[in-house]
Amino acid sequence: WSSDVCSSDLLNSGSFGHIWMAQHVRDQTLFVLKRIRIEKGIESIFAARREIFMGLLFRGVDGIAQYEECF
Prior knowledge:
By secondary structure, the chain is an alpha+beta fold.
């Protein structure tokens, strides 16, 4: 993801990971980048899978941050 981002600022961090506000190189759009540290154990893996599921479930719904991808 680092080649697509021209700047990022850490917004918050917790027991499972970190959240950054980032800006895309191509069109300068702002987005939130979230990293869940799955090496923290099975609970963090379930949390990551739950976020992916919910992001896909609510993709395209107005008023909800849009899920783009996971890697």
